[in-house]
TrEMBL record:
One of its GO terms (molecular function) is fucose:proton symporter activity. One of its GO terms (cellular component) is plasma membrane. PANTHER family: L-FUCOSE-PROTON SYMPORTER. The keyword Transmembrane applies. InterPro entries: Lfuc_symporter_FucP, MFS, MFS_trans_sf, MFS_TsgA-like. Its main location: membrane. It comes from Seonamhaeicola algicola. It is found in: Cell inner membrane. It comes from the Bacteria. The lineage of its organism: Bacteria, Pseudomonadati, Bacteroidota, Flavobacteriia, Flavobacteriales. This is L-fucose:H+ symporter permease. It is a multi-pass membrane protein.
Amino acid sequence: MNKLKKIPVVKKELLFPFIIITSLFALWGIANDLTNPMVSAFKKVMPELSNVQASLVQFAFYFGYFFMALPAALFIRKYSYKSGIILGLCLYAIGAFLFYPAAANEEFNYFLISLWVITCGLAFLETTSNPLILALGDKETATQRLNLAQAFNPIGSLTGMIIAQVFVIGALRSDDYTAEAYNALSSEELAAIRENDLGVISVPYIALGVLVLVIMGIIIATKMPKTAEEDKMSLSESFKKLFANKNYLQGVLSQAFYVGAQIMCWTYIFQYVDNLNITNGTEYTATYFNIAAMISFLCGRWIGTALMKKINPSRLLMLFGVGGVVMCAGAILLPGIAGLLSLVGISVFMSIMFPTIYGIALKDMGDEAKIGSAGLVMAIVGGALMPVAQGAILDWGGDGFADVQVLGFIPEVNFSFILPLICLAVVALYGYASYKRNLKN
């Protein structure tokens, strides 16, 4: 334990490149949490969409990670980390600008394609940035260093949430009507509102595309550190070592379940709040609770990073996983504001999971780490699949889910959070298993 205190998390000579690379973590945080509320936004603008159809926003967004992570790793192996970052930023900008023709054509599928292209770019950024941060210093502090870098991701996420509330959800004309009043409008009025609101949805993404191009220019002009020699291991050897690594394979599975839990909690908090407003007559604003969840997430990330100086990362992951399960149970079983605060509290315990699983799964790897990183980024596909499953639970009772009770007393929306509970239980078990392996070694 004393050894960890003496080794710097980031050496002075690597501080500047560490800061530059860490800025990318905030950049993809903006995209992630600008997109989460879009499930609810598209459902309001296009009421003909079911919950499952609206959740395809998340499917399109997070499927890009699965599709592009391995090609990104192969690209980085052949060229360089910097080339991977630049290509990722280029795809990010293209996807953002595609929102303009999508809004002009008022076609939901075009929006899905735009989101998919954005995340193809994000797959490059995450496949590159995470192992690069791990390599910028001593391997003993690698997991702590990645947690430090990932602590800036929620800052971008908070920015995305605020943009979503102020410039999208708060500006939607379709949100100014009750369902009955909206359906009573003439076809011309509905068409005008639809055109306006789809334009509103597209503007932040187009602005984000401009920001990405500016950052790409800065990256091009920056000299990146050389952190590793040319790969000595063949691709087949890399895959052979990875598939024989039990700790790694379990890490990929845990990462998929974690990301699924995160996206479900941050996406369906909007439906959770809507249900409370309908059943209890409250007037809560879901985005404010989502922002509170992100602030909790940010605080948990900083606290968790500090705790890793004294507590083994695997053990801490297990403890945080158990805490997340308890909070999920509260979101399901507790009525009113108590359940909602439990849902917000889940974010505290999810905070360290992504970088900690990442660091544990890639521990002591050599040349196979780049391909291994791709597998952990591909695991983000959990964020594409799990929300669709939760949307299917919500569709059991139709759109009028406020009146549906499971087991006679649990609202259908609350019950749907059984899926995040299961996911976080898997993460807790991975923390326990990897901690036990550490003790044996």
